[in-house]
Amino acid sequence: PAENGKQNQSQSNGSSGNEPSNSSDILTTRQGHPVSNNQSLRTVGNRGPATLENYQFLEKMSHFDRERIPERVVHARGSGAHGVFEAYGTVGNEPVSKYTRAKLFQEKGKQTPVFVRFSTVGHGIHSPETLRDPRGFAVKFYTEDGNWDLVGNNLKVFFIRDAIKFPDLIHSQKPDPVTNIQSGERIFDFISNTPEAMHMVTFLFSPWGIPANYRQMQGSGVNTYKWVNADGVGVLVKYHWEPLQGIKNLTQAQAQEIQGKNFNHATQDLYEAIERGEYPQWELNVQIMEDGEHPELDFDPLDDTKLWPQDQFPWYPVGKMTLNRNPLNFFAEVEQSAFGTGVLVDGLDFSDDKMLQGRTFSYSDTQRYRVGANYLQLPINAPIKKVATNQRDGQMAYHQDLVPGLNPHVNYEPSSLGGLKEATPAGKDHTPSYSASLVRQKIDRTNDFKQAGERYRMHEDWEKDDLISNLSNALAPAAKVIQDKMIELCTKCDPEYGQRVADGIKKVSEMLKKEKEMSKNGNGQPAPGSDAQKH
Ligand code: HEM
């Protein structure tokens, strides 16, 4: 059986490399039979009927019938590239080993192969890449200690802080189950009842909600993780990718103009830049906080709707990533790639962030359904490290994780007959302890509006204008109860924000009313360039 080598993957379309070499250009079936006629069905006479024993046709057509797998339930539209991560070995003036024993970070210049998938979130696999939506930024590090997936977004905060709300959040953003059309009213029905979303909304409805492309956007782990050193001491950590190409976002009008001509512009931009040899780069920064509840802060460090203020928790660069190779086969490498927040290496750990813990169930669960039980045997998902498990079989089992020289009859542990053995721990375990009642409760320090208000005030004027225009346009057709709740939430963030949204909704509603009257009176469309048409 083939070893799960990234080398193989780089040779051909994500193939494992254990196929017999076939240098001939003769077409065959998947059974290796040469195909001498690929133009005509085998039929009784040249007008048919067809016969059922025609293996060549049955194989070709039935494989075609199965060409699609379920698309990702979120982040279905995406694009990917291979590259390398190079470590700096330090955190500020200190060696990185003070905080983490993860091998990939230790030495300056150490290189780790990576695969990255960028994505939009809400719509289907061929939806436009100009939509207002967070962008996914998922990185798979093929480390010597096995894989590490850092599954992030471009924006640094999220809509909700408890994983149990995720299906509701997504349902509100997906198309209406009756009309199959996405509806601003449904989105804001949920958001207006979810005050913790205001920080995210204040980013998302500004130009930050439409990055110009994948190369000029930031990335963030969003959730709080831990780093653990050789003594088992853990610290809280946040990850941030900073693009060395700079950051570029689009207004709604700019995005619409691009979408009218090209709805694949971000995939095309990434692919073509790499083909030209203009390799995009990002620096990875971390923010570090001592493990604990930090009652002195006005937010909870495990709350993913909050930023950690940079003046108190500086960004430390810890490495640089370069994307330098396009996939050879989109399906094998991008569509079947599977990232998950549970995929950590020694020296990295989970925090108690409730979103992170819920996510960690969801990713591998969906991938066992979406790709199959043996999704980790696919070259794009398999680690470069030799895999040695006692897991066997299942659909599409491609090989067993056998170690040469070990007793192949022993697929259990412990055994005295020559099976796999447990590893020696790489360092002291990180062993946080708990004493609390088992409850269903919100965290104490929700503080939903302070950072959202700061974000509103930090936006440049053109960003504020676009934010108000986008919110007003989305809210004007919504029910009054939703408008009122949203105005109230915006006001709690900043009174000016609330006032501008209220004025904006009023203005757009009047225009919509005027437009409706004009079409009712048979006046046709508003004149080009009229205010009504601008909205
Ligand atoms: C994809 C669940 C929150 C970033 C996915 C997928 C699921 C999922 C089921 C599809 C995975 C696949 O089919 O391979 C959840 C749940 C969440 C959550 C349950 C909250 C409880 C987040 C957050 C972020 C995020 C906060 C950002 C940090 C991503 C990305 C992908 C993704 C980037 C695409 C990965 C890829 O390119 O294959 N999520 N998600 N998700 N999620 Fe989440």
Automatic annotation (TrEMBL):
InterPro entries: Catalase (IPR018028), Catalase_AS (IPR024708), Catalase_clade1/3 (IPR024711), Catalase_core (IPR011614), Catalase_haem_BS (IPR002226), Catalase_immune_responsive (IPR010582), Catalase_sf (IPR020835). It is an enzyme of class 1 (oxidoreductase). Residues 28-421 form the Catalase core domain. One of its GO terms (cellular component) is cytoplasm. Residues 25-43 have a biased composition (Polar residues). Keywords: Heme, Hydrogen peroxide, Iron, Metal-binding, Oxidoreductase, Peroxidase. PROSITE patterns: CATALASE_1 (PS00437), CATALASE_2 (PS00438), CATALASE_3 (PS51402). One of its GO terms (biological process) is hydrogen peroxide catabolic process. Pfam families: Catalase, Catalase-rel. It catalyses: 2 H2O2 = O2 + 2 H2O. Residues 1-24 have a biased composition (Low complexity). Residues 1-48 are annotated as: Disordered. Decomposes hydrogen peroxide into water and oxygen; serves to protect cells from the toxic effects of hydrogen peroxide. This is Catalase. The gene is katX.
